[in-house]
């Protein structure tokens, strides 16, 4: 036993020494897998940034009547100009047509949240993220109380995602890449991604149910998962919204367990319909699911993952049946 403890202590000391020494070596030898994992974590972090910030882009006027919200921040480009030509563009074109512009911003930032969180078309999303971050910086970087470096950092994050393998892990891009390879690993990648997202959606549903217990099940403003303190949120849901989340999660997990393309498609349809219902109601009437733009974007994430993985789930089984019929014929 003493010899075992002595050996364990030696291993621990050796491991700590190697870890400490690695901090002082030239940063040129990171393993590809580790680099991809860090890039994926950075991608998810950027996705959470956009997911939180779509919540206050409220249609239909996007703050124009009150002078706050998106309209107020856009007006800052004129009141506190960063680049005069950009300020002229905002004053003469954007502000007079603000409803159209507001919807454009909501669509772009929702796409950024969904594409980055799900790892879909990551390089395209990175380019869009650079442009959107730059446009935000040109609007508000000189506004009192703003920190201009935050926008440089946002641009830098998306540049890193553009030139790294940020879609290699926990991403739809990984499923697409595996499906196109000769190793036929697409089904395994799809199984992992859909299963992982199914667990995330299920945990979100459980938390939403717990937070909404005792409230009106159809309250127009449900319990918020997250909050402004940390600027992180997965949306808000009343009890009905939480149940829809649970149904989506159950279908996703059942699809991975049974290798069922149809169940994955069903999960995608449920999530897409939930997102569409929120977008149709927000800013006009009470939302049935008690949600926000962030809630709708989170449902869209589940829909994208479900639809993207459906074609790969059960692929091996379908190919075996096709081969068996061919032999039998």
Description of the molecule:
The chain is mainly alpha-helical. The chain folds into two domains: 139 residues, no CATH class; 146 residues. It has 13 helices and two strands, in the order αααααααααββαααα. A hairpin with a 4-residue loop joins β1 and β2. It is globular and about 75 Å long. It starts with a helix and ends with a helix.
Query: What is the CA-atom radius of gyration, in angstroms?
Result: 23 Å
Query: Helices and strands: which structural class?
Result: mainly alpha
How is the biggest beta sheet arranged?
2 strands, antiparallel
Q: Give the strand content.
A: under 5%
Mean pLDDT: 87
Low-confidence runs: 319-327
How many structural domains can be distinguished in the coordinates? 2
Number of helices: 13
Shape: globular
Spatial gap, N to C terminus: 66 Å
With strands numbered from the N-terminus, the spatial order across the biggest sheet is 1-2
Order of helices and strands: HHHHHHHHHEEHHHH
Helix content: 55-70%
| Count of β-strands | 2
Please tag this protein with its features:
about 325 residues, mainly alpha, two-stranded antiparallel ribbon, disordered C terminus
